[in-house]
Amino acid sequence: MTHTNHIVEQDAHHVMPTYGRFPLAAECGKGAVLTDVDGKSYIDFTSGIGVNALGYCDEGWVKAVTEQLTKVQHISNYYYSPVTTELADRLIELSGMKKVFFGNSGAEANEAAIKIARKYSFDKYGEGRSTIITFNSSFHGRTVTTLAATAQDSFHNFFFPFTEGFKYAELNDAEGLLEALTPDVCAIFVEPIQGEGGVNIMTGEFALLLKKICEEKDILLLFDEVQTGIGRTGRLYAFEHFGFCPDVVTSAKGLGGGLPIGAVLCGEKTMNVLTAGTHGTTFGGNPVVAAGALEVLKRVADRDFLSSVGEKGRYITEKILKMELPNVVQVRGRGLMIGIQVTESPKDLCKKCLEAGLLTLTAGKDVLRLLPPLTISYEEIDQGLAILEQVMKG
Ligand SMILES: *Cc1c(COP(=O)(O)O)cnc(C)c1O
Fold it and tell me: Is 375 helix (H, G, I), strand (E, B) or coil?
């Protein structure tokens, strides 16, 4: 029996079977290469679902994290942590937002964004203006409230009653949006590129329409940048492609470089909505995680680094198109967030890629999704794409 099979079997005894998992047990990694417990290597086009922004065990990141570990590993939010304060300074300076709240995950950041939207409206207009519009095929998390915000029927099961006050519209459909805009709406919550839902890109035209409507009606515009943030699309945050700042931006996945962190960033309108006692968390802003995130920002928020993400994305897209694969309908995305729409099961393709030594993700019903580490080398890209071509040509 392989070590992998042994772990798969052992895991099944005491870990709840909530994930459809592949038989890979990780031993160690470097850059975009992961090695499993049986010594097999993989090119990683997933970076832990967009988390390991700097790849596996980046030297600078490991140093930043371990140095903080030897100083203070955690301190309650009743006190201050200088590294967390510094992270806040950097995030605000780089994003153009005004204030931040730190949590531990994407779903938590989104919960905070929802609370901010509702309190903003309650403070100003009182009760009855609390509905939030989200978009079909979105994904906002797994808590009872963020599931309600996630506009996919398959997520609205078992756990009734879900949080009230969400309604759903179609992305990039102006008419449908205008119909949904009843007087009870306090916010519009959108992913600039839907990640889990299929790598569906919001158009610049639609983004500007959202901004215009929200300004006119004092509705808050919230961007879920849990997946698109931290350089993933070739800008620090994807909202920069549209040329304006939303009222609230949520961030998580890539921010910690592999450690759990979530952040909700607020603009001028929303930065003072949460007051003492209205929100909190034990672990949020943890200094070790903050030290890692600071290193991520230091590296990613660099002009040349960000343009290299865009270049690598274009390189991958063009190379896939040149393969002239018969089972590919479309290749779309921005930067290193790439969706390959296919005519066969993306899950099967994902499995075949894994067997051949390439890690990939799926999105929606018919998309193979690539989220490589932002630091991936061209050599690693070429190796990964060679495997992809071989698998997709069958
Ligand atoms: C992953 C993801 C989330 C949920 O983040 P968790 O850290 O798993 O809670 C929310 N929104 C988007 C867009 C995501 O990609």
Answer: coil
Whole-number pLDDT of residue 15: 97
- d(CA 388, CA 371) in angstroms, rounded, equals 14
Radius of gyration, CA atoms only, the chain? 21
* Nearest residue (CA) to ligand 1, atom 15: 227
The DSSP code for 202 is P
Show Cβ contacts of residue 128 under 8 Å, excluding neighbours closer than 6 positions: 184
Q: Is 183's pLDDT higher than 90?
A: yes
Q: Which residue spans within 136-184 are E strands per DSSP? A: 166-169
The Cα-based distances of 140 to 15, 120, 123, 276 in angstroms read: 24, 20, 25, 26
Give the CA dihedral 206, 208, 213, 214, nearest 10 degrees. 110
CA of 249 to the centre of ligand 1 (A): 13
Q: How far apart are CA 51 and CA 46, in angstroms?
A: 8
State how far Cα 351 lies from the chain centre: 23
CA distance 91 to 290: 11
Do 114 and 147 contact (CB within 8 A), yes or no? no
Please give the structure tokens belonging to residue 94.
């780089």
Instruction: Say if CB 231 and CB 309 are below 8 A apart.
Output: yes
Burial of 134 (0-12, 13-18, 19+ CB in 10 A): buried
Coil, helix or strand for 199?
coil
217: how many CB neighbours lie within 10 A of its CB? Answer: 12
- DSSP-derived pairing of the beta strands 131-135 and 185-190: parallel
State in Å: Cα 142 to ligand 1 middle. Answer: 8
Reported as type and span, the H/E element at residue 11 is helix 3-14
| CA 127/CA 298 separation, integer angstroms | 43
How many Å lie between the centroid of ligand 1 and the Cα of residue 272?
25
Q: To test the ligand 1 pocket, which listed residue (140, 233, 237) has its Cβ within 8 A of the most ligand atoms?
A: 140
* pLDDT the model gives residue 189: 99
The percent of residues in the chain predicted with pLDDT above 70, rounded, is 100
Q: Could you give the residue ranges of the DSSP H alpha helices within 134-173? A: 144-149
* Residue range 104-116, pLDDT digits in tens: 999 999 999 999 9
The set of residues, in sequence order, having a beta carbon less than 8 Å from that of 201 and lying 6+ positions away, is 192, 193, 332, 333, 334
Res. 394 pLDDT band, cuts 50 70 90: confident
Q: What's the rounded Cα separation, in Å, for the pair 128 and 92?
A: 32
